[in-house]
Design brief:
This protein has 102 residues and is mostly beta strands. The chain has one helix spanning 23-29; strands at 8-11, 14-17, 33-46, 50-61, 64-75, 78-87, 95-97. The longest helix is centred in the N-terminal third of the chain and has 7 residues, at 23-29.
Length: 102
Amino acid sequence: MEKRDLIKLFEGNNVRYIWDDEEEIKDSLGDEFKQVGLITGSISANGNSSGKAIFSYRVKGKNGKSLVFIDAYKVNGVWAYNQLEFYKELNSAECINLLENK
């Protein structure tokens, strides 16, 4: 799995990658990492125009294990994000808000 596949922001039909410029994330995981375990949470959709998604997944690299948390909603066919956070370590409250300055 390519690291760009782990965190994406969907804007309409376009995908904007937000991983590459986050040095703190690279420091936490290392340059190579992968998703481990299952994606947990819930996704609901009402046709093509509305929905809600709250889920998380773990990633593991040579420097450690981390968690990505996503809270998003879809209105009029477009996804928007309430939260998109990368937790620097499992079972830790210290996280990086990936929506800041984006």
